[in-house]
Amino acid sequence: MVLAGVGVHAAFAAPSADALISEVYGGGGNSGATYTNDFIELANAGGAAVDLSAYSVQYLPGAPTASSKWQATPLTGTLAGGGHFLVQEAAGTGGTTTLPADVSGGINMSGTTGTVALVSGADPLTCLTAADCAADPRVKDLVGYGTALVHEGSGAAAGASNTASVARGAGLTDTDDNAADFTAGDPTPQAAGQGGGPTDPPTTPPTTPPTTPPPTGVEAKIHDIQGDTRNSPLAGKAVTGVTGIVTGVRDYGSSRGFWMQDPTPDADPRTSEGIFVYTGSSSPTVTVGDAVTVAGTVSQFYPGGADTGVQAVTEITKPAVTKVSSGNALPAPVVLDDKHVPDAFVPSAGGGSIEDLPLRPADYALDLYASLEGMNVQIKDTRVVGATDPYAELWVTVKPKQDPTKRGGTLYTGYDQPNSGRLMVQSLLPTATSPFPVANVGDTLRGTTSGPLDYNQYAGTYAVEARELGTVKSGGITPEVTGKAAADQATVATYNVENLAPGNPQSKFDALAQGLVHNLRSPDIVALEEIQDNNGATDDGTVAADQTLTKLTDAIVAAGGPRYEWRSIDPVNDKDGGEPGGNIRSVFLFNPQRVGFTDIPGGGSTTAVGVTGTGSATALTASPGRIAPNDQAWNSSRKPLVGQFTFRGKKLFVIANHFDSKGGDQGIDSRFQPPVRSSEVQRVRQAILEHDFVQQLETADKKADVVVLGDLNDYQFSPAVQSLTGNGSVLTDLVNTLPAKERYSYVYEGNSQVLDHILVSPSLTKRVDYDVVHINAEFANQTSDHDPQVIRLRP
């Protein structure tokens, strides 16, 4: 949700005559960067010194939502007349040059978009719009950069990147218009001793410098670095003398390093004794069991960037590692099981960040995992609740009685129950000698699996980095086959075929065909989602998908199925979302030997379908047609496809859907709690439009047979789906008619959940058999990541 008024031109206080923001750089430590840290540079346009202890610098993400919070770094020292002052912020994992910082903070700024402010006092600002920030007398200066919605004047400062800062000119021009006052260029950080400096007199250097410079930085233990919250109290600071035993080594990819743990813990259960030491693209020079001493810089690393809402991983970067001894016993692992992991998942912060809340590991699972970040942990005889994926990951539960499904998964029953026992498992073992186990949902990872507990940088959740890996015992699930329909029953199915394009291997087409013919028993009508155009993701203006559909229907015939015909409407190029260039759309397949399709001209990619007639004469104005395709609800999203069918002389209206995706939502493991589901707004609007269209059909003919189906990208309890079934609608969401343990069609991060739905009108509710056919989501060998669904309509 973008806040109203954020981008409105606002007049700020008169341009500063002394302290102001002179340069902003958020690309520190990013790919291609020279400097290891982000920074905010201040300058003094006047001649008199400014006491900075009365100020802070603060940061806001570029596209703030209602839950966004300003982050503050309090300042100390003096900004000399005509001088500069450098505030160092969070380190990244790249770069080679450290900053000559005057003050250090831990803010992880975006390299491309954000807002920084020089503020009187250290209390975080609360304004989230340009107008509100302009009205706050505490704001002395403000700079929005990139595409930031909060900025001074006509626009934000342009050109910020991993390698470019935005800076005022040499004259420190301040017209209260960021776009006019700032230009992009190479970062040029200047500290107090470079062009002006603190008024404190310099100390006299020793006459004879020592032969070996003493180590610099704060002497610290690992628990001192980790602290009792998710944020390190030493973030951005140099540390030295950090000791521990190496418990795991990651020597692949660009994020290499090792975990170490202090074998002598403190008495505080909130402070982790483990930490990751990041060596970048260089292979670690240590092995498991080495005792080491490390010096380096403490970093709060946000996988994917701070704006994504993920939690930070506390790391030591730019390490100097000294090996003390080898072959040491590892610290005893912490056992994660039903007894030790709390049922409650995470504390609430009213949508704000939980980073600075004291950890409560006895009360919340996510706090427990944070208190063990980097430490040696162990799981044993755990049930697999998320099948092995192509990235050598699987999911287990350490709480086997927590919302089990009928087939061995863990059911996602509501926003307030994300299932605290779920953990990802990855492997640190060499794949050549220890291949990652292939497991399906319901299997058991037998024996002991142990290793450091990490916050996975891609999934944004906690994972056991296995140094010791259990073996798989099959749970025995097999792909389901739906019941056979009688000759007088029409069958209607929905199937998300996951970006199907002609360039996919023939094996994918064959597997989809087998599923449709064998497992679904050749439904009379099939609504397909994610059919791509004839050249897949190549973005050259192609929108037709006849080659994709020919290849699929030929494979169905080869598998022993009927010769399906199809109906669809090609989208406007690059207007329906999905993979860029793919032009995904929904398509109807139908068996002309069993059902008829009523072709009514007039449908098009931008033409809205309507309803005409009443009673038995009720019909669509176009078939196939699209529901309100020009409404903003469908911006960059698939438009519903409506078709009018006949079965044994009776009309059947079918609406195929693929609602807007959940992309951009904060994850359930987010540092913002409860997480913001920003994509929900668009799906709710989509559902309301479709609800109103169905209501037109039901008003015209109370006995109309209507089937609404497809990938709604949301749960049966979500506001979006309930907007479709509520507000006077009489549609029935059939997933709610299943036993609770069978209500799922998709498995994500170990949660079995509902994204695909079939809903029917009142005339069909007592004449329908409904089945979710589990052939994909629970299996390592998947044709799609969705399970299809089918209904049999009794006469």
Number of strands: 42
From the helix content, strand content and strand pairing, which structural class follows?
mainly beta
User: Mean of residue pLDDT?
Assistant: 91
Q: Which word captures the global form?
A: globular
Which radius of gyration do the C-alpha atoms yield?
Answer: 30 Å
- Are there runs of 5+ residues with pLDDT below 50, and where? 1-11, 195-214
Q: What portion of residues belong to β-strands?
A: 25-35%
| N-end to C-end Cα span | 46 Å
The percent range for helix content is: 10-25%
Count of runs of 4 or more consecutive helical residues: 9
- Major beta-sheet overview: 7 strands, mixed
Can you walk me through this structure?
- This protein is mainly beta.
- It is built from nine helices and 42 strands.
- The strands form nine sheets. Strands 30, 33, 34, 35, 36, 37 and 40 form a seven-stranded mixed beta sheet that branches. Strands 8-7-2-1-11-12 form a six-stranded mixed beta sheet.
- Strand 13 (218-219), helix 3 and strand 14 form a beta-alpha-beta unit.
- Helix 7 packs parallel to helix 8 (719-725).
- The radius of gyration is 30 Å and the shape is globular.
- The protein starts with 18 loop residues before the first strand and ends with a strand.
- Mean pLDDT is 91; it is low at 1-11 and 195-214.
